[in-house]
Amino acid sequence: MALKLSAEVLALKTKHPFIIARGGSSDHRVVWVRLADGDGVEGWGEADPSSYYGETADTVLEALRRLEPHLPDDPFDLETAEAHFAQVVPKNGAARSALSAALHDLVGKRVGQPLYRLWGLDPRQAPVSSFTIGLDTPEAMRRKVQEAAQYPILKIKLGTDRDEEILRTIRDATDKPIRVDANAGWTVERAVQMLPVLKEYGVEFLEQPLPPQDLDGIAKVRRQGVLPVVVDESCLVAADIPRVAGAADGINIKLAKCGSLREALRMIATARAHGMLVMVGCMIETSLGITAAAHFTPLVDAADLDGAALTANDPFVGACIDGGRIQLPAEPGLGVRRR
Ligand code: MG
Question: Which of 23, 49, 68, 95 has the least CB density, counted as fewest CB within 10 Å?
């Protein structure tokens, strides 16, 4: 019996304004997707569109309308379904990943097993997630560091004209490991100049120092040998990895970029074949979106799955990062329910 698709826009609020190097956005509208089969079993997924990659909640709804006639007759036919979706709407990663998550959720519920078990993964291998301290005044950032007391690793967004002040403010407030994401906000010269400063402040690794296309520049930053360099905006799908492999030490996977859970697994395998580190990140999203990514975290080195923890009105309960470590729900499928 044909799958029935329904989609609902959810407007998320963040606890604090979320600002990065290319500015802030208060539009955190995501799309909750449900696929119902003929037996009344429902698979859930979430689309977390990023305007940087050309998607909004409205383009997600339009993409879902275009994808609806291409839903598989058999939800277990996951590879063919995802390949088909990518042909119909190649650029709409967030929209496609919602359908991918919903199909995987449905399959897990049909066989009565959590997704990580279907993939043969040990949930105890899930890493600790970092927690992001958004750009703000020094006083507000000190307060945010205190609010983040339960999280053992902090992620700092740089790429501003007051990066040293921000680093000093955070380091004065805590001894925790820090990871830095410049969100493509630096030049090569600026990045090379910042490396010893980052090292001095105990930064673990540096994410996306330069614009996505500047792989020669990123390679130059990496060759300084000061800190591992991870690419995010430079690497969307598995096919990007051979190209970035010589320039960076690792990749950051996001479902909104790669468009499906199975593509995320291919990215992990491809990155490993190139000897690269793998991290998984997120957008501002609910626990439904976070949980879809959390299920493959036993395979990755580092996680930044704080999207739901940064929101003030998460409608779902699923994977969580309480105390830092990612805890996967043991219920079938994604294991997510309404709060
Ligand atoms: Mg990033």
Answer: 23
Instruction: Give the pLDDT mean for 9-28.
Output: 84
pLDDT at 152 over 70: yes
Q: 234: CA distance to ligand 1 center in Å?
A: 10
Q: Ligand 1 centroid vs 3 CA: distance in angstroms?
A: 35
**pLDDT at position 244 over 90:** yes
9 Cα: distance to centroid of ligand 1 (angstroms) = 24
Kindly report the backbone phi and psi dihedral angles of residue 337, in degrees, each rounded to the nearest multiple of 5, phi listed first: -135, 165
Record the tokens describing residue 313, joined without a space: 């009105």
Nearest to 156 by CA among 21, 299, 273, 317: 21
Measured in angstroms, how far is the CA atom of residue 129 from the centroid of ligand 1?
14
For the full predicted model, state whether its pTM sits above 0.90: yes
Percent of the chain with pLDDT over 70: 100
233 CA to centre of ligand 1 in angstroms: 7
Distance 211 CA to ligand 1 centre (A): 12
Q: What is the CATH number of the domain that holds 96?
A: 3.30.390.10
How many Å apart are CA 28 and CA 225, to the nearest integer?
A: 37
Residue 100 sits in the same domain as residue 146: no
Distance 51 CA to ligand 1 centre (A): 14
CA of 20 to the centre of ligand 1 (A): 9
Query: Which CATH number covers residue 147?
Result: 3.20.20.120
Same domain, 245 and 277: yes
CA 337 to chain centre: 20
Q: Which of 87, 112, 137 is the last residue of a domain?
A: 112
Structural domain ending residue among the three candidates 73, 95, 112 = 112
For residue 86, pLDDT over 70 is answered with yes
- Compute, in angstroms, the gap from residue 183 CA to the centroid of ligand 1: 6
Specify whether 161 is located in the same domain as 305: yes
